[in-house]
Amino acid sequence: MLNSLQAPRAVLMVRPHQFTPNAETAADNAFQTDPKRGNTSAHALAEFDGAVARLRAHGVRVHVFDDTGAQTPDSVFPNNWISTHSGGQVALYPMYAPSRRRERRADVLDMLKVRYRVENIIDYSGLEQDDLFLEGTGAMVLDHIGRIAYTAKSNRADPLILERFATHFSYEPIMFDAVDPEGRAIYHTNVLMCVATNFALIGLSLISDPDRRATVVRRLEETGRDVIELSFDQIASFAGNAIELTGSNGHILVLSTTALNSLNADQKARIERHATLVPVDVPTIEHAGGSARCMIASIHLTARPRAGEK
Questions:
Q1: 31-39 contacts: CB < 8 A, separation 24 or more?
Q2: What is the pLDDT of residues 13-43, one digit of tens each?
Q3: In 7, 132, 136, 267, which residue has its Cα 20 to 30 A from 125's Cα atom?
Q4: Is residue 3 part of a domain?
Q5: Is residue 87 within 8 Å of 147, Cβ to Cβ?
Q6: Is 122 helix (H, G, I), strand (E, B) or coil?
Q7: Structural domain of residue 227, as residue ranges?
Q8: Is residue 252 within 8 Å of residue 276, measured between CB atoms?
Q9: Do 240 and 291 meet the contact criterion of CB atoms below 8 Å apart?
Q10: What is the CATH number for 226?
Q11: Gene3D superfamilies in the record, alphabetically (predicted)?
């Protein structure tokens, strides 16, 4: 059986009924853009449903929760407020934008407890009152095999909480500065890099310190990854915002069609040695500054046996 430690077989996604790019997060998210077309919510909803259908067609178990409220414009990106971990561990995170704090849902936790073995929930969200933030697997890109938490410094990734997370969940924190060509901090690490079981996609040129850049490359290579470098234009096309999952026929790499179209033939060939490329078409959702990986909260918990299921 394929090693699915890095590439889970089940995910959580939130269906957005009133999607719109969040004005509150635009100040430090340079990836946000104006949709410039009407009926944005309807387009986003159709894109979301298409993405879910695509994942399910490849054998991924997708748990969908509907969000019908108008006060959570970024709810389609649940990976920022929750993460799950082997051993029955769940983490809840402190969010930088007040509107994003409303995305946390008790019914999601209830479902996880029923369908999966949950032993412990560590809730960091109270640190919002101290202006300390760590936006989940947006702020951190986790190597579950090498036990490393790669983290770009930003308003949304506080080193103090990163250290607490690393201690609680047994990860080595590797923090670095990452900026775009205009000198703006990359707001989330998961637009910069993707760590899969046997390869990694990363915009190395955006890591400003050469020594830290070399450290990141060394640690990725030490853990057996083929390091595939991405240009800034490819990062801006969300090529780094991908996630490896395990489907019915092995590992798949889920990324947007925008991202796939930005990759060159050599990059695609190197990825396809290890995983099947599975693009999802989410151009409207990408106007909010996130893409396919941001839409997926991966489930690394052990499923409870259910009647009628094997």
A1: 31/187, 31/191, 31/236, 31/238, 31/289, 31/290, 32/287, 32/288, 32/289, 33/286, 33/287, 33/289, 34/287, 35/284, 35/287
A2: 999 988 776 565 656 656 656 666 656 888 9
A3: 7
A4: no
A5: no
A6: strand
A7: 10-299
A8: yes
A9: no
A10: 3.75.10.10
A11: L-arginine/glycine Amidinotransferase, Chain A
E strand segments, the chain = 10-16, 61-67, 82-85, 89-92, 120-123, 140-143, 148-152, 172-176, 193-195, 199-202, 226-229, 243-247, 250-256, 276-280, 297-299
The residue with tokens 């969040």 is 22
pLDDT > 70 fraction of the chain, expressed in percent and rounded? 92
Domain count, the chain: 1
Q: Is residue 4 part of a domain?
A: no
| Assigned domain for 307 exists | no
Number of C-beta neighbours around residue 66 at 10 A: 10
As a whole number of angstroms, the distance between CA 67 and CA 245 comes to 24
Q: Which amino acid is at 244?
A: E
The whole-model pTM stands at: 0.94
The tally of CA atoms less than 13 A away on the side-chain side of residue 34 is 2
